[in-house]
Amino acid sequence: MGKVAVAFAAAAVLVSCSVAAVMVGRRIKSRAKWRAVVEILKEMEEASDTPVGRLRQVVDAMAVEMHAGLASEGGSKLKMLLTFVHHLPNGTEKGTYYALHLGGTYFRILRVHLGGERSYLDVQDVERHPIPSHLMNSTSEVLFNFLAFSMERFIEKEGKESNSQGVKRELAFTFSFPVKHSSISSGVLIKWTKGFEISEMVGKDVAECLQGALNRRGLDIHVAALVNDTVGALSLGYYHDPDTVVAVVFGTGSNACYLERTDAIIKSQGLLTTSGSMVVNMEWGNFWSSHLPRTSYDIDLDAESSNPNDMGFEKIIAGLYLGDIVRRVILRMSQVSDIFGPTSPMLSEPYVLRTNSVSAMHEDDTPELQEVARILKDLGVSEVPLKVRKLVVKICDVVTRRAGRLAAAGIAGILKKIGRDGSGGITSGRSRSEMRMQKRTVVAVEGGLYMNYTMFREYMEEALVEILGEEVSQYVVVKAMEDGSSIGSALLVASLQS
Ligand code: ADP
Ligand code: MG
């Protein structure tokens, strides 16, 4: 070998050595970055952990807070609001009734026709539209004018046969925000939730606002009841099955109501002369307990929300928020590592990742996780390898599993309060035989999160069995109520007329 050839060979060795060194260096660096990301995942997984022991603590805390909220005004973060609903529809109702429902994301209008027998429930013309976002921080006048206008359009489209001319229409206003009722048909807004911010509306009578707007348009419609969405769901549940005593909504927000003995509503003794029972709107979104698992993402989400230090339970279980928790984790990962490529500015936009997309990613069953890739691309994150897509699915799983399991603990807490969890409840004085006797109990559930996100639903139902045990679970039936809050509210108005 000549000198040149030797030098050339030596240089080639040197080059390949340094190429190898660079590659090893890169691999070490990329491994370190991957480790950092895995560390973040591990941390949030640990902080979100919901072993059954912890769930039972949440169950107990829920039952205790319910008692406290019933004992005195302001006695708990749970407002345990009176609804003045003493009787639920029983199937004998007759006639045509309307419901207008303002949810967190959608408003709906529908008409039901009842033939006096449970089997004759005809739900007609369900209209469902997203609430235009500018209305959420407009004025009460703009909001209610819009609702009245929508109602007018709905009625204009009615066939002549659906309502005999000249008869006043009876309407239920299903309103998914906390209201302090003074009767079944009147009540003032306590506060907004779910991103609504019309401050001048707080303290105003909600039914009166709608009635005023309907009157201004010259519509002959009577707002016969102001109904929380959970109470609507309970009404529909009860209409079909009188063992229904609890209703829960998992939609944009989350809330629950249940049938309580009037004498257990201690804060209102004297006010409530009717003996028997009343539906209590728990406003459970505001529940809090130190046993609830909380991550740094939850803390940041709360601090940056329109209602900080408020609605803590809702912010870890409801549809408006799950997507944003997932977004925050992905953002954090993309800041410490380049596994998502350069950090997409879109990842910093609050609520840009919706819970619908979380369920689409979580339930993506394509082998290459194409749905995950597509949704990440919409967030400005393109071309991530399969193992990163799997990581995203895992994040969705951790966030939704926690939500579903805590939702189950909330339900079990209510069952405990009313002595339907097999333990005899936390009130003393129950007889032994009463403690042993387990009644069939139906929990009506509705809301877009529950109806459309299978994994959420499965985690919830699985945890409920874990908490209650196989035996007691046999007596607890969870029933989905599609559009339950709107239909049920119309039924409730019908039951007031009969
Ligand atoms: P509202 O809260 O206005 O009464 P819904 O009960 O229909 O309306 O709930 C809507 C919410 O449910 C959405 O904002 C979203 O958070 C959640 N949701 C709807 N569809 C899905 C889905 N496919 N996967 C996960 N969450 C969903
Ligand atoms: Mg709803």
TrEMBL record:
Q: Does the keyword Kinase apply?
A: yes
Copy the pathway line from the protein's UniProt record. Answer: Carbohydrate degradation; glycolysis; D-glyceraldehyde 3-phosphate and glycerone phosphate from D-glucose: step 1/4; Carbohydrate metabolism; hexose metabolism
Write down what this protein is called: Phosphotransferase
Query: Where would you find this protein in the cell?
Result: Mitochondrion outer membrane
- What InterPro entries does this protein map onto? ATPase_NBD, Hexokinase, Hexokinase_C, Hexokinase_N
Record membrane topology: Single-pass membrane protein
Note the PROSITE patterns from the entry.
Answer: HEXOKINASE_2 (PS51748), PROKAR_LIPOPROTEIN (PS51257)
Query: What range(s) does the Hexokinase C-terminal domain occupy?
Result: 246-494
Q: Which residues cross the membrane?
A: none
Where it mainly occurs, coarsely classed, is mitochondrion
Q: Which ranges carry the Hexokinase N-terminal domain?
A: 41-236
Q: Which family does it belong to?
A: Belongs to the hexokinase family.
- GO terms for cellular component: cytosol; mitochondrial outer membrane; mitochondrion
GO terms for molecular function, please? Answer: ATP binding; D-glucose binding; hexokinase activity
Gene3D superfamilies the UniProt entry points to: 3.30.420.40, 3.40.367.20
